[in-house]
Design a protein that fits this description.
By secondary structure, this protein is of the alpha/beta class. It contains twelve helices and nine strands. The protein is globular, with a radius of gyration of 19 Å. The chain starts with 12 loop residues before the first helix and ends with a helix.
């Protein structure tokens, strides 16, 4: 059966732990500059309705290092869901390529793309979720804390696609997750309810960042206005100003906490320069780990021996 990677909770805790283990080994091989080419003779189609430096660089570099060829398809190459039907372009790309990665706006587009594709489809981001990022995050937490469960992570900011993927992960691994956000900017109600109903992790919403971060092992943030929300920037800046991650907020954890950010960061807005440059910040380890985790995911969905 064809394997796609669209949502973290499509997979079990066992698979998630296996991906972390694979990413660890892949990263070691990469740093030792080993020759490792399981994707020799294979082609990856990368569809970008939403541009991204990290997503393109990490997928293209990683797939090339593992012996494959990555093809970049920008918004002007494929106007997905506009110039050509998704069901059509999905089947056409499947005839040419062994694997598809898509970074899109509408989540239903990635679902439809995967439904009609004959090859594995990986979700590089949609407005609803960002599973590759959160898998890289849990890999980073494993490296820093030595575990993938039994920690407290406080996300400070908008209840966006990053939060939705953390809520998906909370249905498979046990940890304490708090989304500290302004009123009116909470995550999707159904996704929140699903995570709480599973009852594996303690999942909370807070509107007080100072109290929310107490005892946090990890403090995480993202930009206040994502792509497609820039017209809301002025209003969001007013609402989110008390939710800035600064040295005072990081100190309110009461412990040596990690700071994570999925990048790009707007320094001076959601996070200060001082926090970004602090010893607590592991954002560049996190950014590097995108590539290694995505490599692990591509190995899994293609069924390549490792």
């Amino acid at each position: 059966m064809k394997r796609d990677f669209l949502h973290i909770n499509d997979y079990s805790a066992e698979v998630i732990n296996s991906l972390v283990a694979t990413a660890t080994t892949v990263k070691k091989r990469f740093h030792q500059k080993e020759t490792f080419e399981p994707f020799g003779g294979m082609s990856l189609a990368m569809i970008f309705a939403k541009p991204s430096a990290r997503t393109r660089i990490s997928f293209e570099t990683g797939f090339h290092w593992m012996g494959g060829h990555a093809l970049y398809l920008g918004a002007n190459d494929i106007q997905i869901g506009k110039r050509e039907g998704i069901k059509d372009i999905s089947r056409v790309i499947s005839r040419y390529n062994d694997l598809i990665m898509a970074r899109l706006f509408d989540h239903q587009h990635i679902v439809e793309l995967a439904h009609y594709a004959d090859v594995p489809v990986i979700n590089g981001l949609t407005d609803y979720n960002h599973p590759c990022q959160i898998m890289a995050d849990i890999f980073t937490i494993q490296e820093q804390l030595g575990r993938v469960e039994n920690f407290k992570l406080v996300y400070v900011g908008d209840g966006n696609n990053i939060v939705h993927s953390w809520l998906n992960l909370a249905q498979r691994l046990k940890f304490h997750f708090v989304c500290a956000c302004p009123k009116g900017y909470t995550p999707d109600v159904k996704t929140l309810a699903a995570a709480q109903d599973v009852g594996l992790s303690l999942v909370e919403i807070s509107h007080d960042p100072q109290s929310a971060v107490k005892d946090a092992d990890v403090v995480y943030t993202d930009v206040w206005a994502s792509m497609g929300q820039k017209e809301e920037s002025a209003e969001r800046e007013k609402q989110f100003q008390p939710f800035q991650v600064n040295s005072e907020l990081l100190a309110a954890t009461g412990k040596k906490s990690l700071f994570l950010h999925c990048l790009p960061a707007e320094r001076g807005r959601e996070v200060t320069d001082a926090v970004m440059e602090s010893a607590s910040a592991k954002v560049f380890d996190q950014a590097e780990n995108r590539m290694h985790m995505q490599n692990a995911i591509m190995l899994m969905v293609t069924g390549k021996e490792f």
